[in-house]
Specification:
This protein is of the alpha+beta class. The chain contains three helices and 15 strands. Strand 11 and strand 12 form a beta hairpin.
């Protein structure tokens, strides 16, 4: 009798678990569009002002690269401007006394403008050896340390802003009529507040095979559609965090006839 009771209780537990899984919605995860910050030219890192996980304000110092070559270039361009200015003054004086030609004056003026433009470019290159944060957020990862040589275009740090956090999940084809751009979805994850929500910002127009990272005890369609949603409290989520996404009823309101979900840029 006792064994039979335990067996029945076990079946009830499995049934309840199956119901909970069915109500859990769709499995997803947290991703983010990181902002990669690096130098315009090859250089060696002299100072690094941040560490991974540090909060950062827009305009705060990130890192400084060696600037010997840029300083030498500035000095050379300053000399070129001085020489061009002397040539221009001489051509201007000769033109006023009718000893020079208009062509010589125009050539000297063009040479002076070119020298000044090159000096401005050299100063810009020098200033950009000290990089400041373009956004407010957190330092996600540091790729190069002081003393290391960084190739041009390679990022030294990556930054994460709350507005670039997104929730990604897949839905079967049968669910597409019930979800649209701007819809609110519930987000659930371990240790997260119970009231997290996100708004759908992207719905794929083409299907793909079910990703192998999604596991479920229920039978799933082999073709699914990617959906992205922007969380309303992104600071509560972490990149790579697995979660469950549940669709929220629209309170009986139906989408306008012929209206198609919009695609948002990723």
């Amino acid at each position: 009798m006792r064994l039979s009771t335990l067996f029945i209780l076990g079946l009830l537990s499995l049934a309840l678990a199956g119901c909970n899984n069915g109500d859990a919605g769709y499995q997803g995860w947290v991703e983010a569009n990181l902002i990669f910050v690096g130098p315009d030219e090859t250089g060696r890192v002299e100072t690094l002002s941040v560490r991974e996980g540090d909060p950062i304000e827009q305009g705060a110092a990130l890192f400084v690269l060696d600037s010997d070559l840029q300083r030498a270039d500035v000095a050379m361009q300053e000399t070129a401007v001085v020489n061009a200015k002397q040539a221009f003054d001489r051509a201007q004086t000769l033109l006023k006394t009718s000893a020079g030609t208009q062509k010589n004056y125009d050539d000297a003026e063009a040479a002076l403008r070119t020298a000044q433009a090159r000096l401005n470019s050299a100063n810009t290159r020098l200033v950009r050896r000290a990089i400041k944060s373009p956004v407010t957020g957190t330092v996600q990862q540091v790729y190069f340390r002081p003393g290391e040589l960084v190739p041009a275009g390679r990022p030294i740090v990556s930054l994460l802003t709350p507005g670039n956090v997104k929730v990604r999940f897949y839905v079967p084809e049968a669910t597409l009529p019930h979800i649209a751009y701007g819809d609110v979805v519930k987000v659930q994850c371990d240790g997260c507040p119970p009231d997290l929500t996100a708004k759908v910002s992207f719905i794929a127009r083409t299907a793909e095979f079910t990703p192998p990272v999604i596991y479920s005890t229920e039978e799933r369609s082999k073709l699914v559609f990617l959906v992205e949603a922007l969380p309303e409290q992104p600071e509560k989520l972490r990149v790579g965090q697995p979660l469950n996404v549940a669709l929220v009823a629209r309170n009986g309101a139906q989408a306008k006839e012929g209206q198609q979900p919009k695609e948002a840029k990723r």
